[in-house]
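so i finally got all the pieces together for this one. its two components total, 616 residues if u count the protein bits. some of the lines might not be protein, just check the labels. i wanna see the whole assembly predicted at once instead of chain by chain like last time, that was a mess tbh
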Amino acid sequence: MTVTIPASTPARPSRFRLSSRTREAIDGYLWLSPWLAGFLIFTLGPLARSLYLSFTSYHAMGSPEWIGWQNYVVAFTGDGQFWPSLGRTFYYSVLLVPAVICGALILALLLNQPLRAGSLYRTAYFLPYVTPVVAIALIWGWILHPQLGIANYLLSQIGIEGPAWLSPRWAIPTLVMMSFWMLVGGSRMVVFLAALRNVPQELYEAARIDGAGKWHSFRYITLPLISPAIFFNLIVTLIAALKVFDIAYMLMIGNQGGIASGSAGFSLYFYVVKLFDHAFSFFEMGYASAMAWIFLVILLCITALQFRWSSWVYYAGEEGEG
Amino acid sequence: MSAAKAPPAGAGYHPLLRQLGLQIPAFLCAIFFVGPFLWTVLSSFKTVQEIGAQPPTWLPEVWQWQNYLLVWTTQPFGLWTLNSVLVSVVSTIGLTFASAVTAYAFARFRFPLRNVFFIILLSTLILPREVTLVPLFLLFRDLKWLNTLLPLTVPNLLAVGGNGAFLVFLLRQAIMTIPRDYDEAAKVDGANSAWIFFHIILPLISSALVTAAVFAFLFNWNEFLYPLIFLSDKESYTLPVGLRFFQTFGAESKVSYEHLLMAASTLASLPPVLLFFIGQRYLVQGAVMSGLKS
């Protein structure tokens, strides 16, 4: 602030000095400015550009050519892989999300018992969550190798002939299993564990005195009281599942002529994998941008619906705790 | 978190029997989660022949320590490691600091549109970054940033994106627990907002800052999608893209590198796993804070 204040007029500061509220606002914006600049350059600008590109034909060279709604029309009616890739993505999510939510809750219930060395177990369960996905894909790809993998060897020892795990027929269930292993013991389990420990013990005591069994205590005390944690995990996990890319991409080798030219074919050709393929294998930047905006709208609708249908979530009115 | 507050389930049984009934499933789960890691580490010490042997051997016949040397010479693994370390260290420090600055703005100042900006920040938390993949690639191409480490670090220095939003949210919670009287007292003594930030706020949220830094490191060390798009020169790769390159390289050259791939995977996983063992408490705390305040 370079406001020159005459030395002899301290009696009327308001005319020459900024009010404290204005100064606070200026200060606030100064502290906010790095993020604000970053948001405009790296989020809002690109968001707008991608919307514009979605109405163009653009192959990364020259200038984009305006083609109106054509990309969207092609996606919905002309592209033979659009709906299948979306279907695959939902199939994967529908298998994965309930499994992860139930699995994480069961693990949390187990760790919430008076279990010796409980924190050691928690560490073990959390481990896959911090490991690079690329390493996880390599590890599991090797374990599940149809001929040389340890998984099929162990299965053969108990008389089961293991399948070709990454063949088109098995690829999605296999990927669900890998993702389950990666996600179930991580932050979702920890969130459940914290929620379980916040349930007041008096409620269980009271229920026991009233003659409620274990199942009834769980169903009518535990579940309602941890429902905010369930809701949070549900939203986070569903969004993550719909965005599946890293692990699928790692399992599909075939860089020339697109991702799907590898041995796994189209079996793991999820929505974001397809988007990536159009953008960076075929350089169809306009079409990829249209796919990106369709994806954004789908995710927004799903998240909005989840909030709409969230009447089952019970908030105990514990504002400001934490 | 207080321990041993669980409901007295199965109270009718002998305590030892009960403990056994808990230990067995807990241990089986532990095998399920840790087993693949052990198998990877064991495989990384075998020869190519032994790694593909049927029936498989559990322990390596002869421990092939040289696998861990071969990794560094077969591929520019040292360069990739250096790139990963550079990106992760710069991004961790930058992202944590920038998130604290942004969190301070939201927690301590009243300014027009503050709530609007905060809602925007929260919505970037769930905004799929796939939507901006193409324009970001074009932006970095026009800036001549492709094949440099700038696209992976500069946005972090401004706390942008989902990771930034997550950490801002976390640190804002921490700052809001500090009584405003501390700020006011310093202001009366003539301190400006920067002095308050560095001398009062940052020291008092140090534990939350460590939590944020642990998350920031994990995000950046494990990042795959962005380096895959922004880096195409082998020399500029970070470890995850390097591993991917190594994998396709092995598949295309028809030579089996599985033992080296396992060694490389082990090495790449080592920093986050070690950090997790050291900073476990902070990670768990952060996950809890993010989940319960939704």
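Chain A is about 65% helix and 0% strand.
The first helix of chain A runs from residue 13 to 16.
anyway lmk what u think
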